[in-house]
Amino acid sequence: MEKISPLSKPKPVILTCAQPTGNLTLGNYLGALRNWSKMLEEYECYFGIVDLHAITVPQKPPVLRQNVYSCIAQYIACGLDPKRCHQFVQSHVIGHTELAWILTCMTPIGELQRMTQFKDKAAKLGFKVSNEPESQGIKFTHDGVRAQASINAGLLCYPVLMAADILLYNADLVPVGEDQRQHLELCRDLAGRFNQKYSETFTIPEPYVPSTGARIMSLADPLRKMSKSDDNEKATIFVLDEPDQITKKIGSSVTDSGTEIKVSQDKPGVSNLLSIHSSLSGIDFPSLEDHFLGKGYGELKSEVSELLVETLRTVRESYYELINDKTFLDSVLKEGAQAAQKRAFKILNKVQRKIGLPDRPR
Ligand code: AMP
Ligand code: TRP
Fold it and tell me: What mean pLDDT is predicted for residues 301-308?
């Protein structure tokens, strides 16, 4: 990483994290990774792999460990050059759980119970979370029957750990998807509350919304976002898909009635394919519409497949080289952890001091 001379202004800090679960999708690549890789010069970038968030749901230990490597190899293969940014594992850096605890002690339970993602996750586990004022704390009901609370507290406290991930680095900008906006809002509230109570300490982070980058929709239902957790395996392209998988998925993607190839609200399937084409080829929509004038959906699909196969070939080949070079991946994670730790300790020490914890003996 470039040395900062005393005269140069420090670069703004961007931080984002992802759980080491599942493979990256075409949506992640076009909507996130590809944009992030263009920001490495302008910002000081930290990318965290949040393994402590992952254990809020059951994990198989060897799989979790392997997924961390798979995640970092996919990041690098998608363009996050480790020489120009810091990539670290959350559990390698002292401070995430320490700050999370301090923030937990400032967070009303009710605010956490109201988080949409907590309610969704609880519902998936078969619980209904009630916020009725008369309920003492959390009341879980299942099919109308009062049940023993068996949801782990980690799921409830998840957003506080996320706030700690961000505030521990005094990040200026945080790229997050729509579903994480509420968590980022909580983080901003907590930072503001802390600053007010103990004096200016934390930067209030802003969400980062890329100016370019399309929203990629499901190939099976183009009205829904392409997502890694879709049950229909034909709905999602993964960056590690083999060429024949890509061709099959694009071939069976849902198109619309009529034959015209244009971007339009009543043509969500065709619009999605044009959007993928445009993101990969760099050709704008009007030129693409001209190019496809008089041609059929088959031609559109075959061009989109070709572009995808070509782009993702580089990603896939690079991934397989990296995943077999554990020594290199370990060296990336070591550099990342050291840089992250240096920054994290500064902020953690400041916070501990402000709230009255005694200095660590030297
Ligand atoms: P997620 O995998 O939902 O946690 O998203 C991680 C990042 O990828 C976020 O910045 C999202 O905005 C981006 N992303 C995920 N899915 C899509 C999609 N279908 N289209 C565009 N961007 C996406
Ligand atoms: N909760 C985020 C997600 O599931 C992951 C995450 C954890 C995160 N800590 C973060 C994202 C800090 C941005 C910043 O997508």
Answer: 98
The runs of H, that is alpha helices, within the chain are 26-28, 34-36, 51-54, 61-77, 96-104, 109-113, 116-124, 153-167, 181-198, 243-251, 268-281, 285-291, 297-323, 326-354
177 CA → ligand 1 middle, Å: 5
128-130 sheet: strands from edge to edge: 128-130, 139-142, 145-146
- Indicate the domain borders of the chain: 13-213+325-354, 243-321
Fold match flag (13-213+325-354 vs 243-321): no
Q: Which ligand is nearest to the CA of 158?
A: 2
**Angle 227-228-231 from CA coordinates, rounded to 5°:** 90
17 φ, ψ (degrees, to nearest 5): -135, 155
- CA separation for the pair 339, 351 (Å, rounded): 19
Please give all residues whose beta carbon lies within 6 A of any atom in ligand 2, as ranges. 15-19, 50, 53, 162, 165-166, 174, 176, 180
| Paired tokens of 135 | 């309920």
Residue 122's pLDDT band (cuts 50, 70, 90): confident
Q: What are phi and psi of 20, to 5 degrees?
A: -80, 60
Q: Which residues neighbour 343 within 8 Å (Cβ) at sequence distance 6 or greater?
A: 46, 168, 169, 170
Residue of the nearest CA to atom 22 in ligand 1? 31
Fold of 243-321: Tyrosyl-Transfer RNA Synthetase (1.10.240)
Q: Do the bridges between strand 206-208 and strand 86-89 make them parallel or antiparallel, or are there none, so unpaired?
A: unpaired
Q: What is the pTM of this model?
A: 0.90
Q: How far is CA 156 from CA 18, 95, 98, 294, 320, in A?
A: 18, 20, 17, 55, 37
**355 burial type by CB count under 10 A (0-12 exposed, 13-18 middle, 19+ buried):** middle
- Best residue among 28, 176, 230 to mutate for probing ligand 1's pocket (most ligand atoms within 8 Å of CB) is 28
- Identify the architecture of domain 13-213+325-354 in CATH: 3-Layer(aba) Sandwich (3.40)
Residue nearest to atom 12 of ligand 1 (CA): 177
pLDDT-derived band at 360, boundaries 50, 70, 90: confident
Contact 206, 172 (CB under 8 A): yes
Identify the CA nearest to 298 among candidates 238, 262, 252: 252
Do 95 and 342 touch, CB atoms closer than 8 A?
no
